[in-house]
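Inputs:
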Amino acid sequence: MSELIYLPDVVTLELDAEKCNGCRMCVIVCPHEVYKMIDKRARIVNRDACMECGACALNCETEAITVESGVGCAAAIIQGAILGTEPVCGCSEENGETGNSNACCG
Amino acid sequence: MTYHNLPITEISGGCCCSSEENTSEEKGNYGAECCGSSSAECGCENRKVTSELSCCDILGTWKARWGIGRMSYAICPGLYQLGNPGPESHVFVTANYKLTFDRLRSNLEGIDGWILVLDTKGINVWCAAGKGTFGTAELVERIEAVNLENKVTHRKIIVPQLGAVGVRAREVKDLTGFKVVFGPVRSEDIPEFLEKNLKATPEMRKVTFGFWDRLVLVPMEITGSVKYALMIMTGFFLLAGLGRGGFSLERMRKDGFKSVGLFSGGYLSGTALTPALLPWFPGKAFAAKGAWAGQLYALIAGYLGKKRLLPGRHNLGGTAWTLMIAAISSFMGMNFTGSSTYTSLSGVRKEMRVAVPLQIIAAAFGLILWIISLFNDGDNNE
């Protein structure tokens, strides 16, 4: 089975190639092979595979990467809209009272 | 969190403090101060575990997959000894969701090492990292709390790659002196990762979402919203009694079960059929895939049933159900984005902007048609 790819041209991922110092952290942490090292610099080669998890931006040594990270989860977005908060993966810490119970919680 | 109150039997194999055999094993370098049998209070310092899973553990995993007691399926955070680790042994960092912990230790068969369990409130590594509970602050604190620098002579910890969403390697190094090495995505690749001198292959770095990966999530998809599904089913069952001449119990018995069955079919199309056959349904949006799954079911149910469930001028009930099944299945399919491993927040927002209004229109229109069909004797939906 070939790779599953989500909607094209939606992600907020940006890489400032000028700032890259070639530390490879983004290549290491990305779970979807979005980056490739080309001439000792990281390049985005598969942008639509990005799921905006934010691991690369967090671990980029030179802050060359920006992404509006968050959970790609409809239940979290609905809950966020109802409660007026950011979409957070459900499961509240008080006995699941206010959380949604999507599979992400386990 | 409730893990403080867990009966000790629930974490057998997860805590040395419980089983008798430990007393004989407590001759290591690290003293034998094992907490008593009443102590699931996370106070003990030397917890020993093996890579073997007991039948309790396996049953526990199964229950968690079905959502039974899942939110309190946690173990005490802290440092665990796997086998007989020494000062040179590897340190593996993980979450305190017991399913995660069990999977890690069972994949480390034959390896002596330290397992550093972070307090993620009983949530798996990836999701906890997204929330920040599996994060730099907790990791740094836990390293200090368990006095890791005196337990091992090296300065390297192996953190699961998906933990990188919450763990900033550079900061951990600056604050504790420990270098974070991001290990493979799946713990089953750890033995090979160790053999390769802590180098992961590109395959080990990639998250997959194959048939079985999706299938194990299905029970939770089904049980997750079952409460609301049952309420809606009750509504359909009661409404089915309506018709010309008012409410009739007999009609409710006759058509109520049929309605509940059709609704359940739509619900299962979204929660089970969509995840299982995800790559094969047309479209990239999960709402679209869910809608197709619903249509597939409606088509099959329509042909198998005595009456066709196909839309048509003379089949008001069939039209109504086709619309409602599409809406339900699409909505539940859309909810599967939360369990998938490749959807982005921006993407889900985009699909919801289009899908949710359509789902509401289809459901409302379908419901109105269905109610009309109940009062319409000429309708051949009977």
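Chain A has two domains: 14-66, 74-105. Flag for discussion at group meeting.
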